[in-house]
Amino acid sequence: MLSPFIVIGFIGAYFVSLVVISRVTARKGSNEEYFIGNRQSPWYAVAFGMIGDSLSGVTYISVPGTVGSAKFSYLQVAMGYVVGYWVIAGVLLPLYYRMQLTSIYTYLGWRFGKAAQRTGAFFFVLSRLIGAAARLWLAVNVLQLFVLNKIGIPFFANVAIVIGLMLVYTYRGGIKTLVWTDAFQSAFLLLGVILSVGALIRQLDFGLSDAVIKIFNSRYAQIFFLDPKPKSFFLKQFIAGACIAIAMTGLDQNMMQKNLSCRTLPEAQKNIISFSIIVLLVNVLFLALGALLYLFAEAKGIALPAKSDSLFPMIALNHLGSIAALVFVVGLTAATFNSADSVLTTLTTSLYVDFLGLDRKNISEEKKIFYRHTIHITFAVLLFLIIVAFETLNNKAVIDTVLLLAGYTYGPLLGLFAFGILTKLNINDNYVPVVGIIAPLLSFLINYLVNELQPVWLNGYQIGNELLLINGLITCAALWMLSLFNK
């Protein structure tokens, strides 16, 4: 059994490496450096770092687990991602660079008004704060259950140490630091998946070519689903994947702030196009890992856990040896902190620019930096309190529900940006916050009526990931109605 002190030692060394990177990359700690990295970030570092930013700890253990029931259907969504990323490169990035934005929600302020800007920023802050807390809860909970409980360290101390370490390497450098720490963490994430695949192949006594053949000849390898009724239908998954990429990357300050730190628009576009190919290949790797986990469980007579999310941790920590267990912990740590640490910086940016407007106020640079530091620390404290609240509730279903609800918040963003870019209509933006409340509520109602009540006239049709598109369309329709009143 792997010693808890060895795991703590490796994770400690991992964080020391992040702190060293922070000290090297963030020498001045200026606002320009913190918010947009002086627009000097190399595109290839941004592209590689976005791998971990787009894949959380939830993805790290959930995507392999879903292979048992959903097979390779998730690849249909990943194919849609590619189209969505190309839309970002061709439409959104030129807009953001032309306006020289720091916060992308400034566009909504320019197009509609301050209320629209704050509405967009509010949905970003809400979804990212809760989503980051939920993802961090998952990682620190695994660390607590398998390591820290054995040596008597309480959960709240675990969370405080982790968030404190994140503060150490994001406090000064902001985006300039995160570009390089994210690339570092993405390398460990990929290393964790690749070494886990290697351990499974070795345990199953396969060669690499044998493993590929076994996976694609297994019952898990079906990619395309052509029945239009279930959630797994190809067209629904593909279109939803494109919308998810546009909304959760192109309209998300957390994902876009690093892209806006590239030297030029062509470099930022090169970054996104490269990333679209990389993320497709990485998802293939995750799905292959899932198939191998199920093949391994079948070959060794291992009973499957009640929840598919538990499959990867159970096999990695109990059946593949100490090195594989350590690889899993480090990979999960990289996946989770890569998607969570940047949130402190981008939440600070949104509150600083969109709500308080400190970037436009005539105050000294020293005072601006003081306010920035205060906001950064405040969000760290909020993150700590939310994670401790999740643990107090002690219900995994609560976390799943929180992440599901966070998905509803991107619909209004999708609708607002689409209406602003695709039309020239004007609205009274004082009503935009009302639209931001109504659209998710109507989407929730539609989802409930279709999926839970199963009306006969829909003949078994189920709403899946296309709910985001429905949410965005409702927002667009409501904004169009507001434009009629504006006339």
Q: Give the % helix.
A: over 70%
The arrangement of helices and strands along the chain is HHHHHHHHHHHHHHHHHHHH
- Indicate the low-confidence ranges by residue numbers: none
Q: How much of the polypeptide forms β-strand, as a percent range?
A: under 5%
Distance between the first and last residues' Cα: 71 Å
Total helical segments:
20
What is the global morphology? globular
Roughly what is the average pLDDT, rounded to an integer? 84
Key features?
single chain; mainly alpha; 487 residues
Structural description of this entry:
With 487 residues, the chain is mostly helical. The chain has helices at 4-25, 31-36, 43-54, 57-70, 74-98, 106-111, 114-146, 155-170, 175-203, 208-217, 234-250, 253-259, 265-300, 311-318, 322-355, 365-393, 396-408, 410-422, 432-451, 467-486. α1 runs parallel beside α8, α1 (4-25) packs parallel to α15 and α7 packs antiparallel against α17 (396-408).
How would the blueprint of this fold be written?
Elements: H1 4-25, H2 31-36, H3 43-54, H4 57-70, H5 74-98, H6 106-111, H7 114-146, H8 155-170, H9 175-203, H10 208-217, H11 234-250, H12 253-259, H13 265-300, H14 311-318, H15 322-355, H16 365-393, H17 396-408, H18 410-422, H19 432-451, H20 467-486
Helix pairs in contact: 1-8, 1-9, 1-15, 3-9, 3-13, 3-15, 4-13, 4-15, 5-11, 5-13, 7-8, 7-15, 7-16, 7-17, 7-18, 8-16, 9-13, 9-15, 11-18, 14-15, 15-16, 18-20, 19-20
